[in-house]
Amino acid sequence: MATVTVPTSRTRTAPRLLKNRAAGKLLLLGLVTAVLLPLLHGGPWPDDLTVSLDKPLATASDWVIDNRDSHPVFLYFLGHVSNAVIWAVRAVYLALLTAGWAGVTVLGALTAWRFGGARLAAGTAAAFLACGALGMWVPTMQTLALMVVAVLASVAVGALLGLGAGLSDRLDRALRPVLDTMQVLPAFAYLLPVVLVFGIGVPAAVLATVVYAAPPMARLTALGLRGADPEVLEAVESLGATRRQRLLTARIPLARKELLLGLNQTIMMALSMAVIAAVIGAGGLGDRVYQALASVDVGAALAAGIPIVLLAVVLDRVTAAAGDGTTRPRTIGWPYAVAVTVAVALAARLLGALDWPAGWTLGIAEPVNRAVDWMTAHLYSGVPVIGGTADWAGHFTTWILDPVRDGLLWLPWWSVLLLVAALAWLIGTWRTALTAVLAMAAIGVLGVWEPSLDTLSQVLAAVAVTLVLGFATGVAAARSDRVDRALRPVLDVFQTMPQFVYLIPVVALFGVGRAPAVAAAVVYALPAVVRITAQGLRQVDQAALESARSLGATGRQQLWQVQLPLARRALLLAVNQGVVLVLAVVIIGGLVGGGALGYDVAFGLAQGDLATGLVAGAAIVCLGLMLDRVTQPTDRRPRKGA
Amino acid sequence: MRRTTITAAVAVLTLATGCGSADMTKQASPFANARGSKTVTLSVQSWVGAQSNVAVAQYILEHKLGYRVDTVQVDEVPAWDALSQGRVDALLEDWGHPDQEKRYVTEKKTITRGGDLGVTGHIGWFVPTYLAKQHPDITDWRNLDKYTSLFRTPESGGKGQLMDGSPSYVTNDKALVKNLKLDYQVVFAGSEAAQITQIKQFAKEKKPFLTYWYSPQWLFEKVPMTEVKLPPYKEGCDADPAKVACSYPHTPLQKYLNADFARSGGEAAAFLKKFRWTTEDQNEVSLMIAEQKLDPQEAAKKWVDSHPDVWKKWLP
């Protein structure tokens, strides 16, 4: 995925100035509270400040179901959208099936060869064959078909928006906060509104995916267009090119790198979402994982999870290679690639081997389940001295999660708001603080204060663990090239895996409950935190380090007194990323017993009770906004899309 | 240039908004009927009994009738919606959803009844039999409050824990606890799998527990459980979900088919209408899937091979 750029830290006078301003801010907040305090009472959010949306939402949902086959909005607009999606997915799916497994594999390999050379091609072919060997060929093709349509739509929408924002300042100002916000929202929050309108099924899944995956394309397109070298543009202008010629011949080609990075991010996010959308009937690989998770069949979940990971890695590498832009040795032209594919597909058809041969599948579910059973029997509980994984999960729940949750719920509601305000204001501006407080207050008004704080407690616990592990690993990677080299491929793979996949192993290890949700979140967020930390530490001004060294500072002193303070902004960014990524997975944790908001969304989807689900979804949005603003350093930087 | 833009915009608008109406409630899954093969899409619910129905139906449809079967994991209520829109063709085990039935079967006529599954379902509150032997009076709801302390857990907050399973199941438990004024807290395990894991762990250590459970269910063979008597069920006593204060009914489980599929689904529709087996048959397959961890298709094959007299009658 995208690498995150970390600017080196500012001058050293900043901290003191900040400290004074910080004291002033805190004083002001304290004053406001002191004035308001007599009016407030403690405990959780008061009932008279809540607005129940259950009735109107239930009515809306009933109205949609009753009018879906008669109202003109559905007949003449949404129906066509839905039809177009189904038609497109079906067309791609049929094309993939017609090409057969051999055709698809060859086409994939040739495309990879064209962009990235022979090694990538071999890897791609192996990945496709592995999908077939796991008995997942048809689900893989279903997911791929859905992905192709969703990615094309996302790219079209994203590029259009990005073009607008790149050319018009006003549009840019209007779009940027929206896109920024959309990128921090957990995927789960996008599902319910589309289900309300389109019902369970592929159209809803594709549209949710598009909404989720289009923002990075828009952002990066705008960024690329705006970042074009002004001298080049001037030169083109002086040659008398019209606006349109300038756009087509200079600005867009110059933004090629950003455009392809945008494509890469869009693909990765679309894959992640296409898998999660199984919850709303997307079918394909995600559905297999979902089915397997429902019966805690880890082996079957893994058999469907591996193709997802392979697909993710292949798509990421191929698009990254395409965006690399380095000159490649001539490999193969498109006409030849297509011709070879058609030939292979025809050959397979004549041989009657379009479907993946039944005898060639490898049943990994059974051995994996046996291994898991062994693990649960031996590691799960009662291991001498260190205890079993279930014991850890139990202790983590009773010693950390419960106290944090109870503590948060014990806090008077206004003090939670105050804490949010103080944190956000200290790190950001009054504007971010205001957004954060309003978002938190909205949660209270929606009447989901308690489940939201439950989710928040899980997020806090997971973030704490992530930061401890992430900073430690990041420091190690920054200080030793060997560690860095060893970590890089691991981080690469982990960063490309869709969120859903992380749920499988944690269920096997930690059973069901809040602890596995937290564990999955930690594993998911860790790579980004490690990466940003290491990068930030490495970019610390060498001169500062050198002078510290010449003053006789030991390695530890250098780290604590020079590198870490100077990399403060990178560390803050790591915290921000960690929080956003953790939230996304903690929410999905509702599927493995995480409870709270994630469970409410799952419940809303399962019972068709959209009122519960939508309110929980809105609370997730608010929580995401709040957490992002509270940890957001003053200015924004590109982030890992998740 | 401008003219091209306008033409393009008009073309897009026409394409998008309408050369006629499009009824999105009549759209099949894009993955159905690929390459001319006849496809049936079956909805699977998360409990093993439903998996068994689907596994056997799928096996016979694929191997005896030459269909291709897609299965989609959908919970019951969304399955009704998907069924009405034709995104799935059949729902093989429904535990009673009067609201949905009224809306889709009676009013919209997009779903038709597919007949009895042959299995009678019953939901209730259960305690393990070893506990019922120790405290014989625990099986009456009036005495439950005496034993609250037995059922206390970290998640139940000082009250007794009544364990519920998946969010998707038919349940009145929250209302029941409230209306019967019991000192209990309903704790959702999150999924049936989680609930079963938990029950097995309790049973291994012979600990007391009170759980929402239902029959037919294969787990009874592994962990014998005794039902707690709730106030008896009378017709209509569960009409208002907030005021329920009676036990759950005995429900003959029903099959439902998409109306179009039922009319024009050929042999597959005829077969699914005739599909009818017993609790014992279902449990046999369920045990193979859940306890022996057989792949559902292998379990179905074993059952089909050994019970030709049963399924031969289903063939059209």
Automatic annotation (TrEMBL), chain A:
Compartments, as annotated in UniProt: Cell membrane; Membrane
InterPro entries: MetI-like, MetI-like_sf
Source organism (scientific name): Streptomyces tricolor
The protein's name in its UniProt record: ABC transporter permease subunit
Regions that span the bilayer: 91-113, 120-138, 144-167, 188-214, 266-285, 292-314, 334-352, 408-427, 433-452, 459-480, 500-526, 570-598, 610-630
UniProt xrefs under Pfam families: BPD_transp_1 (PF00528)
UniProt family annotation: Belongs to the binding-protein-dependent transport system permease family.
Main location: membrane
Lineage of source species: Bacteria, Bacillati, Actinomycetota, Actinomycetes, Kitasatosporales
Keyword Cell cycle: no
ABC transmembrane type-1 domain segment(s): 140-319, 452-631
CDD domains (alphabetical): TM_PBP2
Automatic annotation (TrEMBL), chain B:
PROSITE patterns membership: PROKAR_LIPOPROTEIN
Lyase in keyword set: no
Domain ABC-type glycine betaine transport system substrate-binding: 38-305
Range of residues in the leader sequence: 1-22
Keywords noted in UniProt: Signal
Presence of the UniProt keyword RNA-binding in the record: no
Superkingdom field: Bacteria
Protein name: ABC transporter substrate-binding protein
